[in-house]
Amino acid sequence: MAIFSCHPDDRGGHPSPAAEAEYSVLLTAGYEGCCYSFEDIRTMLEDAGFEQIGYHKSICNRSLVVARKTT
């Protein structure tokens, strides 16, 4: 599975950059649901049986989360 969006990286206890945090507020206010952090998505994917979950930073505060599900 590949998920490309804005995923605040909350690992390591470091706060998100200000621009990313502001964008997250817009996502939460403009769409139904939430702006999920990498840890939120990692937990949901693990609960659904996915493994090898990775986080890859991209441009403009975007990121790619990838995961594999074995049968």
What is this structure's SSE topology?
Blueprint: E1 2-5, H1 18-30, H2 38-47, E2 51-57, E3 63-68
Antiparallel strand pairs: 1-3, 2-3
Describe the model.
The mean pLDDT is 76. This protein is an alpha+beta fold and 71 residues long. It is built from 2 helices and 3 strands; from the N terminus they run E-H-H-E-E. The protein is globular and about 35 Å long. Strands 1-3-2 form a 3-stranded antiparallel sheet, covered by helices on one side. It has helices at residues 18-30, 38-47; strands spanning 2-5, 51-57, 63-68. The longest helix is centred in the middle third of the chain and has 13 residues, at 18-30. 32% of the residues lie in helices and 24% in strands.
Keywords summarizing the entry:
71 residues; alpha+beta; three-stranded antiparallel β-sheet
Summarize the structure.
The protein is of the alpha+beta class. The protein has helices at 18-30, 38-47, and strands at 2-5, 51-57, 63-68. The chain has a 3-stranded antiparallel sheet, covered by helices on one side.
